[in-house]
Write a structure and sequence with these properties.
mainly alpha; 434 Repressor (Amino-terminal Domain); 6 helices; 48% helix; 0% strand; Helix-turn-helix transcriptional regulator; DNA binding
């Protein structure tokens, strides 16, 4: 058997800080899009407001279970908050799109929370 390839080196501190800040900015934008305060989102995601605030400020790493709870509250695709809107929507501009009311297939867990991915495939706008 051949040699195993060397793993990629970890990102340096400045790269991590930049990614955390960009992630936090997108998280904040998504929260604003659905009209929630940090306190409301944190409560609905089962976390402390100060912990959530640290995520938005790029000062905390999030566990996958935390991200999935936030995703559910926002009705947002996880790829949106991690990689940006173009990754989730396929839209080069990447802006938030259609709002989906509570109880739709969007996964939104709050009344009036929008699905920033737009309508589900095969569903009318």
């Amino acid at each position: 058997m051949g040699k195993m390839p060397m793993p990629a080196p970890p990102p340096d501190r400045s790269q991590l800080d930049e990614r955390r800040q960009a992630f936090g900015n997108r998280l904040r934008d998504a929260r604003h899009h659905v009209g929630l305060t940090q306190e409301q989102l944190a409560l609905r995601a089962g976390m402390d407001r100060s912990q959530y605030s640290e995520l938005e400020r790029g000062q905390r790493d999030a566990r996958l279970s935390t991200l999935l709870r936030i995703e559910r509250v926002l009705g947002a695709n996880l790829s949106f908050v991690v990689d940006g809107p173009a990754a989730a929507t396929g839209d080069e501009c990447g802006g938030p799109t259609q709002a989906a009311p509570y109880g739709t297939d969007s996964g939104a867990a709050t009344p009036g929370a929008g699905d920033i991915r737009g309508p589900a495939p095969g569903r009318p706008d």
